[in-house]
Structure formats: structure tokens, C-alpha cells
Design brief:
Layout lengths: L4 H24 L4 H10 L4 H13 L5 H14 L4 H10 L4 H12 L4 H13 L7 H14 L4 H14 L1
Helix pairs in contact: 1-3, 2-3, 4-6, 5-6, 7-9, 8-9
Amino acid sequence: MEAGPNEKINKDSENKKALSAASRLLKFRPRSEQEIAERLAQKEFSRAAIAVTISYLKKHVFIDDDAFSQAWIASRLKKPYGEYRIRLELKQKGIADNLIAKNLSAAFKDYDEHTAVFDIARRRLEHYYDSDNQSLRRKLYGYLNRRGFNQRTIIQTINKLLNES
């Protein structure tokens, strides 16, 4: 059975609506290919409409997972977050492992994690003024670990900070 003219218009209409929905999402911030696909699926667009939309967005460079991951890493380092957390976030957003590894190694080439961890820990230490030493260590370790920093760096920083005070 051949598709009639109304069915083609409906498909074109669905494609236009999917592209419009994707464009609205991209107005707020860059997104990965997987994020766009998931959000369109949540809005109950057909797989075909999602595929057409993703293809169009990639062709016209509205979505680019490599550029997205570079921008995401740069923004997360400003907060700052550690490599482990950034890696996890990018995996959750559907970025390929090879892109994650390439962009993280490039970003961390000039990044001083020790200084970042020390600065965060020193600021956070002010919030724990009534804690004993063991409790203070546990709280600082948990906080820095949740931010995705390297365990060795965290322990060295905590020891250095608590030996200074």
C-alpha cells in the first residue's frame, strides 16, 4: 500500500515539529546527540522523525559531540569539578569514550588539580568550624570525592590543610 499525500504531510509535519522542539532545546545550551534524541523520544516523536532531526542537526553542525564535550569540560573545570565526575557526566550524556578521553587529556594538560582541590577544601573548611579532626576529615573527603577529584589528591590536600591549621 502506497502512502497517500496526507500521510506524507503528516510525516513532514512531525519532522518540522521535532526540529522545532530540538531547536528550542538548543536555545538554552548546547546538547549532545543522545540528549536531543532522548528529549524528542520523551515528547513521543517517532523514531524516524528523531533520526531525520538528528541527521539535519548534525549536517548543519547544530550538534557536535566533540565540540559539546570540549565546552562541557571547560565549564565544569571552572566550577571546579574533577576528572572522574566530568567523565561520568559526559558518559551519561552519550559522548563516546574516545572523545571523552581525548578531550579530557587535552583539558587536563594545563590544569592544576592540586591547586583547585586545595582552594576548594580551604574554603569548605570554614563551614566545618565546630567539627573534630576525624569528622572534619570525613566531611572534607566526602565533599571533594563527590566533586570527582582523585582520591590521592584529596588525601594529600586534607593532610596538608589540617597540618597547617
